[in-house]
Specification:
- Helix content is 15%, strand content 35%.
- It has 243 residues and is of the alpha+beta class.
- The chain has one domain: Alpha-ketoglutarate-dependent dioxygenase AlkB-like (Jelly Rolls, Sandwich).
- The protein has an 8-stranded antiparallel beta sheet with strand order 1-2-3-14-9-16-7-6.
- Strand 2 and strand 3 form a beta hairpin.
- It starts with 16 loop residues before the first strand and ends with a strand.
- 30% of the residues are buried.
- It binds 2-oxoglutaric acid and fe (ii) ion (FE2).
- The site of 2-oxoglutaric acid has 11 residues, from strand 7, strand 15 and strand 16.
- GO terms for molecular function: broad specificity oxidative DNA demethylase activity; cytosine C-5 DNA demethylase activity; ferrous iron binding.
- Belongs to the alkB family.
Length: 243
């Protein structure tokens, strides 16, 4: 498979990216992944100082747990801490054989403030649940997966806010089956060079917002791999809409 990793920054722009500074002057980049999948990235979504204040609050006050999950027929400790918030009356979330307890937004008013900031940055989008992850060091990670659980509907929108240690976030096109044959590299090589790529890489900055939209969960997997050089804590919030 041809893998072309690129960090998205001004010095190394992605060929599929369109820069679209919003009214507020905050740079936002839209990456067209093709076939109706799209990522929006706002590196300076939150002012750094406010983001650090929120990082320290979340690190200390959130009731983090590291649950036992069930993957590939085995029980193992999830390789990161987690917590879950949801509005009342929604379908329960269950993943990898684990059903997290749903805390309420009222118990953590700062999460409501962050949610409001997300809603203001992407008008028209609404989120009613939140999965929090804490990566204590570079050996904490999230394996390849997509957030395509039925409760999010056919085209889930996921808004991801990152705090603390910068970590790499990877997106990789899912293999598809055509006439009984698994096709991994679906696009002609020539087109790959100039247009859509099979893989994308983002360094998710402290205070950044990244949004996955359209068919990204149906057609792409994502991961935050282990990184020996990541020595400090990263907290990530993924806002989701249960339909
Ligand atoms: O930590 C991240 O950036 C991603 C977390 C994630 O993919 C998830 O919670 O489903
Ligand atoms: Fe995810």
């Amino acid at each position: 498979m041809s893998s072309r990793f690129r960090g998205l920054d001004a010095a190394n722009p992605n060929p599929n990216a369109e820069s679209d500074p919003s009214d507020s002057g905050v740079r936002r980049t839209i990456i067209d992944l093709g076939d109706g999948s799209e990522v929006l990235y706002i590196p300076r979504f939150l002012p750094s100082e406010r983001a650090w204040a929120w990082f320290h609050y979340l690190d200390k006050e959130i009731p983090w747990t590291r649950p036992v999950i069930h993957v590939f027929g085995r029980h193992c400790l999830q390789p990161r801490d987690t917590c879950y918030i949801a509005s009342k009356g929604l379908t329960d979330l269950k993943y990898s054989g684990y059903q997290p307890h749903a805390y309420t937004w009222d118990e953590y008013p700062i999460l409501k403030e962050i949610l409001q900031a997300v809603h203001e940055a992407i008008p028209g989008s609404t989120f009613n649940s939140l999965l929090l992850n804490r990566y204590k060091c570079g050996s904490d990670y999230v394996a390849w997966h997509s957030d395509d659980e039925k409760l999010y509907g056919p085209t889930p929108e996921i808004a991801s806010v990152s705090f603390g240690c910068e970590r790499e976030f990877l997106l990789k096109k899912k293999p598809v089956k055509e006439e009984g044959i698994w096709i991994v590299d679906q696009l002609p090589k020539k087109r790959l060079k100039t247009s859509y790529q099979e893989q994308q890489s983002f360094m998710l900055k402290h205070g950044s917002l990244m949004v996955m939209r359209g068919y990204t969960q149906r057609d792409w997997n994502h991961s935050v791999p282990k990184r020996a050089k990541a020595v400090s804590v990263r907290i990530n919030l993924t806002f989701r809409q249960i339909v």
